[in-house]
C-alpha cells in the first residue's frame, strides 16, 4: 500500500521564523545599545531613562522617593556588592529606569575610581536619574544607615561594661576570624584579577613594598607605578586619551590631587591630629575597590600616639564592620567617634566618601572616552591587580599580633570552613566565637 507523502508540520517553519526573529531582535538591540545616540527612540527601546528623558516623559524620580529607596536598600545590604545587586533589581528589573547595559557601565566605572564601589554606584545612579541633586541624595542615603549603626557601636564601645567584656583573648579570636575572612577575599580577588605574568610580578612586588613600607607615600607611589607600568607596556600605544574638562572640573581635580599629596607627605607626628581629616580625604583616593584593602591605609592614619586609637580598637572596628550594613569602609564613623565624638564621626564620613563621590560623577561624564582607550584600560588592569597586595599584607600584619596557639588555629580552621565551604554569614561566625569564648570564661571562673 502506498501512503501519501506527509507534509512537514507547519510548526517547524514557525519555530524557525521565531528563532530568526529572536536573533534579529538581539541584533537590533545590540545596534541600539551601541548607536543609541544616533537612532531615534533608542533610549525608549532600551528603557534607559536619563534625567532629561524622564523629565520630558513625566517620569522623573522624586528626590524623596530616591532617598527612601536607596536608604532602605542600603540598610538591608551587607557589603557593597549586595547594595549593587539590590539597586539593579529595583531600578533595572522592577522599575525599568535603566537598561542592563547602562547599569553595567555604572558598575564598571565604580571599579575604575577609588572609594567604596557600592556607594559609587549609588551616586552615579542618583546622578543619572536626577542630576547633581540626585547624586547627593543617593550618596547620603547609601551612607546614612551604616553611619548611624557604627556610631552607635562606638558609643557602646566607650562604656566601661563593653570595654571590660572585650578581653584580649576575645579580641585575638576576633582577629583570627577577621584574618581568615580577608585571606579568603584575597584568594577570590587574586583568581579574578591576577592572571597574566605582568599582573603576578606587579602583585608580588606590591606585597614586598607594602610589607616594608611605613609611610603613606609608599601607597601612592606603588599605585601610580602600577598604572604607569600598565600604560607603558600596553600592546596598543598609538591611541591618545582625549578628554576635555571644564574649568570647574579642573578645579575639582586640583583639589583632589592636593589632598592626595597631603596624605603622601611625610609630616611630623605633631600634625597628625590637626591634619587628620584632610589626610583621610586624600587616603580615600588610594582605596580602589575599598573593603579590607583599606586596612593598612587607615591604620597608618588612625593608629598613632597623637590620634589615640589602639591596635585593639582598630581590630575590633574591622571585626564589627561585617555586622553592619554597607561597605566594609563603614568603620570610618567608628574611628571618627573615637577621635572626636559625633562631630568626628560626621567629619570622617564626609572626608572619606564625598571626594570619591565627586570623582565618580566627574568620571561618568567622560566614561565612553576612558573606556574606549586600550592603554587606559591596561593600566587600570595592572592597578587592580596590585590592590590585592593590600589584602595579603593585612592578613600578615593581623597574624603577627596573635599568639601562636592551638586554640587560635582551631578558630582559624572553623572560620575558614564556615566562610569557604558552608557560606555561613559573617555575623553568625562572630557570634559563635563570642558565645564559645564566654562559655569558656564562665567554665574557668567556676573551676
From TrEMBL:
Matches recorded under InterPro entries: Chr_Tranpt_l_chain, CHR_Transporter, Chromate_transpt
Membrane spanning residue stretches: 66-86, 106-123, 135-157, 169-186, 198-213, 250-268, 280-302, 342-362, 382-404, 424-446
One annotated Gene Ontology cellular component of this protein: plasma membrane
Keywords: Cell membrane, Membrane, Transmembrane, Transmembrane helix
Example GO molecular function: chromate transmembrane transporter activity
Membrane topology value: Multi-pass membrane protein
Record's subcellular location: Cell membrane
Lyase is among the record's keywords: no
Family: Belongs to the chromate ion transporter (CHR) (TC 2.A.51) family.
Protein name (database record): Chromate transport protein ChrA
Organism expressing this protein natively: Paraburkholderia dioscoreae
Amino acid at each position: 500500500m502506498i501512503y501519501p507523502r506527509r507534509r512537514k508540520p507547519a510548526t517547524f517553519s514557525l519555530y524557525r521564523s521565531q528563532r530568526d526573529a529572536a536573533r534579529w531582535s538581539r541584533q537590533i538591540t545590540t545596534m541600539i545599545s551601541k548607536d543609541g545616540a544616533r537612532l531615534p527612540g533608542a533610549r525608549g527601546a532600551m528603557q534607559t531613562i536619563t534625567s532629561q528623558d524622564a523629565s520630558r516623559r513625566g517620569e522623573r524620580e522624586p528626590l524623596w522617593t530616591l532617598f527612601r529607596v536607596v536608604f532602605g536598600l542600603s540598610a538591608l545590604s551587607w557589603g557593597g556588592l549586595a547594595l549593587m545587586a539590590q539597586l539593579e533589581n529595583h531600578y533595572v528589573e522592577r522599575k525599568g529606569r535603566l537598561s542592563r547595559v547602562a547599569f553595567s557601565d555604572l558598575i564598571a566605572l565604580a571599579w575604575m575610581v577609588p572609594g567604596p564601589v557600592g556607594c559609587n554606584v549609588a551616586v552615579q545612579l542618583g546622578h543619572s536619574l536626577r542630576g547633581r541633586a540626585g547624586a547627593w541624595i543617593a550618596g547620603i542615603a547609601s551612607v546614612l544607615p551604616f553611619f548611624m549603626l557604627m556610631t552607635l557601636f562606638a558609643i557602646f564601645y566607650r562604656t566601661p561594661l563593653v570595654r571590660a567584656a572585650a578581653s584580649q583573648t576575645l579580641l585575638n579570636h576576633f582577629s583570627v576570624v577577621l584574618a581568615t575572612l580577608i585571606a579568603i577575599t584575597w584568594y577570590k580577588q587574586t583568581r579574578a584579577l591576577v592572571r597574566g605574568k605582568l599582573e603576578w610580578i606587579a602583585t608580588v612586588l606590591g606585597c614586598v613594598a607594602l610589607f616594608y613600607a611605613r609611610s603613606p607615600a609608599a601607597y601612592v607611589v606603588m599605585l601610580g607605578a602600577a598604572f604607569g607600568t600598565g600604560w607603558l607596556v600596553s600592546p596598543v600605544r598609538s591611541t591618545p586619551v582625549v578628554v576635555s574638562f571644564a574649568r570647574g572640573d579642573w578645579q575639582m581635580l586640583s583639589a583632589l590631587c592636593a589632598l592626595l599629596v597631603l596624605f603622601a607627605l611625610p609630616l611630623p607626628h605633631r600634625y597628625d591630629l590637626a591634619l587628620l581629616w584632610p589626610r583621610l580625604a586624600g587616603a580615600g583616593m588610594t582605596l580602589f575597590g575599598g573593603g579590607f584593602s583599606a586596612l593598612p591605609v587607615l591604620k597608618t592614619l588612625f593608629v598613632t600616639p597623637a590620634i589615640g586609637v589602639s591596635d585593639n580598637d582598630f581590630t575590633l572596628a574591622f571585626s564589627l564592620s561585617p555586622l553592619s550594613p554597607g561597605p566594609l569602609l563603614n568603620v570610618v564613623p567608628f574611628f571618627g567617634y573615637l577621635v572626636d565624638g559625633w562631630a568626628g564621626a560626621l567629619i570622617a564620613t564626609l572626608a572619606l566618601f564625598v571626594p570619591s563621590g565627586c570623582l565618580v560623577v566627574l568620571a561618568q561624564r567622560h566614561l565612553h572616552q576612558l573606556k574606549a582607550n586600550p592603554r587606559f584600560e591596561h593600566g587600570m588592569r595592572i592597578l587592580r591587580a596590585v590592590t590585592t597586595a593590600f589584602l595579603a599584607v593585612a592578613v600578615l600584619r593581623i597574624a603577627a599580633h596573635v599568639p601562636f596557639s592551638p586554640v587560635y588555629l582551631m578558630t582559624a580552621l572553623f572560620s575558614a570552613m564556615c566562610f569557604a565551604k558552608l557560606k555561613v554569614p559573617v555575623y553568625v561566625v562572630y557570634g559563635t566565637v563570642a558565645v564559645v569564648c564566654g562559655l569558656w570564661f564562665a567554665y574557668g571562673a567556676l573551676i
